[in-house]
Write a structure and sequence with these properties.
The complex is a heterodimer of chains A (209) and B (477).
Chain A (H helix, E strand, L loop, with lengths): L1 H13 L35 E2 L2 H12 L7 H7 L14 H20 L24 H9 L10 H11 L16 H17 L2 H4 E2 L1
Antiparallel strand pairs in A: 1-2
Helix pairs in contact in A: 1-4, 1-7, 2-4, 4-7, 5-7, 6-7
Chain B lengths: L1 H19 L4 H13 L5 H12 L3 H10 L3 E4 L2 E4 L6 H11 L15 H11 L13 E4 L2 E2 L4 E4 L11 H5 L9 E5 L12 E5 L3 H9 L3 E3 L4 E3 L9 H8 L10 E4 L1 H4 L14 H7 L7 H11 L3 H4 L21 H19 L5 E4 L2 E4 L24 E3 L17 E3 H10 L2 H16 L6 H16 L4 H11 L4
Antiparallel strand pairs in B: 1-2, 3-10, 4-8, 5-6, 6-7, 8-9, 11-12, 13-14
Helix pairs in contact in B: 2-3, 2-4, 4-18, 5-6, 16-17, 16-18, 17-18
The chains are: A mainly alpha (209), B alpha+beta (477).
Amino acid sequence: MKTPIVLGFLLLLITSCNPSQKPDEGSSSSIGGSPIGPPVVQAMAPRLVRVMNYNQFNMTLAKLTGINQSKVTSVFEQIKGSLPADGDIEGMTSFNLVAKAKLADAYCGIYINGERNMQGALIAGGVPMLPDSEIPGIKMHLLNKFIDYDAADPVFESLSAELDNVISNRDGQGGTLIGAALSASQLNRNLSVMACVAILASSHITLLE
Amino acid sequence: MKHMMFAVMMLLTNTLLAEASEKTPRELSKKLYISLTGTQPSKQELDYLEPKISSGEYVEAGRDIIDQRPSVIKNGVNTKVIINGGAFYGVTVKDWVTPKFNKQRTTLDPLNDGSATIIGFIRDERPFNTILYDNVVYKALGVTFQGELWYFDTTLPTASVANAATLCAGLGLTANDYKIIHNDPLDPNNFTKRACRKTKFKLAALAAAKSVNSLYVPAQDLIIETNLLSTTNRHYENISEQGLDLSNPGLLVAVKQDIKLHAYPAAISGLLTTRAYGSAYFFAGTNRAPVAYAMEHFLCKDMEELHDTTIPDYRNRRDVDRSPGGSSELYKNRCIGCHAGMDALAGAFAYYDYTNGKISYTPATVVPKMNHNVLFSAGFVTSNDGWKNLWNQGQNAALGWGSLAEGEGAKSLGTMLANTEAFHSCMAKQAYEKVCMKKAVAKVDKDRIARLTTFYKSSNFNMKRLFINASIECLED
């Protein structure tokens, strides 16, 4: 599972732009929030771009994947202190990013490959949560499930292109992401986990605005 | 009249937002969702919320997000449209309240009896101005394994529990189902109100739970590690570990503190006498911490802001050096500023301590730490739990104290604090800063908080509504 983490980390950096940030946003309020008077434009400090803290991120992943937080408790407790304690984007460190990718990997591993025991064998009925029939269309499955995806919105172009690379086992430099000899089925599932991590650890999910 | 004003304000809020917004309804839906839950909405959730926002139903949309409603019938199954695991309570509110129960102000701590009680108050829309003195603590609703429930494998012995077969009949249980017969969690000593249910747990797990007298929650068929509250936080930690939905009214319920936490009714004072508050502020020290941190967390005033050297110092205790470093000027210009007001209030906690993982309360006996370290023998000696508010004069009179200015014990102190103007505006400020994700420093922020404070008071101190309205206030920022 190290490869998905590394790749997720790289993709997170690639896609870490703020997808909908506009430079002039936040400098005024067109509604002023007034419940009892007309809207008034007033000078105010801009709303800061925030990143999810550890609790928000964990709950978001649980909610989007439909996996109870207790299934990843051991990973979460191990890295909780490395995830952002508050939402201050200026306090973000590389440790935070790696921890986010690692937690996303824990959820994605269960989501794509099913819950497994310490030896890697399937438990809880022995069936992956995602059936084989979903794997060929995994990109759209993940995009539609995890984010409010709109193919016409250019905000999603780079993410979509990166996912195409991952799912096609391309590293973007003429090589492959996974070179080990795996069955086609397991290769596709592993690539799907990587794609899943790439989305869940991306700024499309982790930024709060 | 109050309710009419409240309704008009809400109507105007919705109308103005609908007319004046520059963001699309979908963008506003997403922002409202993130503000309240700290999590990302799904496409399906946005599809549901967008028309509501378009038609100006902001408050309704906020309620739907918080309470995960409505439910619809999908493929014959009752399915929720909004599914976020109770993130408003488990993330937003929990992150807000957790720093109130530790001196490090960290959000990383697990759930505890104090944070669970705040979550319960907000979920049930109880008047929040009672939270510092009400006889309430929230805990999981269940029955214990010793004497309140019986479990069975594939057979139902008729001898062990009266009417076992009758109780389990008609529930559609198969012969292979594991079953639990339990007393009513709300009336556990009444054997006439027993019920039967199917359980997912097998005999080994049930036997293990019985061996340590765990708590079984029938409404959700789950086991909480322990039902003890006064000596351990495991009850709440286990709820956190299991990732349970705190918005579920079948999980956390209000019980009286004298059942689970305290032997003496006089010891009870809402949040101030929860185990979490005691472990943070009654442990060691001089029992000034419960006052200082209450001022910070519930009145938004730290000691620096309260500092006032014009207050008479006749309640300053003997452990306050009157000439620190040989300088009586330092005492008069610095030390008095905090101690004069704080020491006069801290008498309320004269009978409390926190030892061996538990709050101790010794009625009519002042704990030694209130009078130790004698540096000035003519200082005030605490002889009972009387307290006096000396901050209702001078600069701190602006906190809006009520008529209560002195009393005995924590309950009367909590009553006074929770009914100050400062408490109300502090709750509005904290709710605003939490869901708007910024410090309220600009004039527009302060104006909004003033409006929210007025609204909060007119809503019978409804914190859930306060959070919703606060998030609506800053939707366009």
